[in-house]
Amino acid sequence: MAERIHIFDTTLRDGEQVPGCKLNSAQKIEIALALEELGVDVIEAGFPVSSPGDFDAVRQVAGAVRRPVVCGLSRAVENDIKTAAGALAGAVRPRIHTGIGVSEIHIRYKLRTTPEDILHRAAAAVRYAKSFVEDVEFYAEDAGRADNEFLARVLEVAIKAGATVLNIPDTTGYCLPEQYGAKIRYLMENVRGIEKAILSTHCHNDLGLATANSIAGVIQGARQIECTINGIGERAGNTSLEESVMILRQHPDLKFFTGINTRLLNPVSQLVSEKMGMPVQPNKAIVGANAFAHSSGIHQDGVIKKRETYEIIDPLEVGVDHSRIVLTARSGRAALAYRAKNLGCNLTKDELDRVYAAFLEVADRKKEVDDADLGVLLEQYVVSAIA
Ligand code: KIV
Ligand code: ZN
Question: 15 in ligand 1 pocket by Cβ < 6 Å?
């Protein structure tokens, strides 16, 4: 039987950490409501101790959404945790997300402490968070570069203290999918009490592997993916929500499903892009402007005959009206005839030959031949052009 993968959206926290993407409370609420409609399981609304504005945003999101869990980030510091609890007080389903660095480099240089102290601080933070809310998630920062044996010990104390979700961040986007998957497998097999918690992936995209690593983690036993709309996030970004969801959907053989209404993926992507002032790269999988555009003659001919020849996803499934046949100097006669037909002009073979020669001249001058250009060509070269 297929198993459900929980989608933890951190667009409003890790995503919003991107320079220039700062949102105000009203914008965060608008996005949170869209995420609720999209069907995410958890919304990480912010880092309440970081600023009064973020405290207020988390408080308002907590009051606005009903179904998803609303989560606030904190370091393993009492004041952070207490502040997060305060911001989440109005939530129907509050979660505190607390944690600490666990790699040697974080312990020695950032935290300037010892592994024993990390164990103590991890347990104390989870215990303290538990005094406010039932649902506590623990993050082991830089788990991607941490020693697996030590990581397992930290997770054991977090579980003992009451954590029910264990986040394994590849904070620096360092891991290969095989390594990250093996880490998750190791933890599934070696952490005492792991059956009382679920493992969560949280991958960064510094090597372009965030989504691949998250999927590798799920295959090896993780049951939550932390991700953002459009893959937005610190540096090169986080795991992309739309990619993760569609990978699981396009590969039913993996036997996983999510609660996401995929038809809302494109509208939500556009909303986030607009509110954050962060354009989506045109070749971005699933939500990029070119994700369903075909411009070379060979591909266009195939798609016009049968869409599935060059598309593995029906655009309607992700909220895009239709595939696009773009006319460029690489386009063939089939694409030209198709676009002319869309303008109401059924070309004969002779007409097509005439228009095609003229079209190539225009296409060599212009990057893209649009409907207006095509209309002019049809008027010039076809006797009974557009009706
Ligand atoms: O990347 C990371 O390690 C994080 C944690 C704070 C969860 O974002
Ligand atoms: Zn992160």
Answer: no
What does the DSSP assignment read for 59-93?
HHHHHH-SSSEEEEEEESSHHHHHHHHHHTTT-SS
What atom in ligand 1 is closest to the CA of residue 10? 8
Domain boundaries, the chain: 3-276, 293-381
Residue 141 CA: which ligand 1 atom is closest? Answer: 3
CA 191 / ligand 2 centre spacing (Å): 23
Note if the pTM is more than 0.85: yes
DSSP label of 286: T
64 in Cβ contact with 32 (< 8 Å): yes
Class of domain 3-276: alpha beta
At residue 196, the 3 state secondary structure works out as: helix
Helix axes 241-250, 210-219, angle to 10 degrees: 50
Give the model confidence (pLDDT) of 169-190 as tens digits.
Answer: 999 999 999 999 999 999 999 9
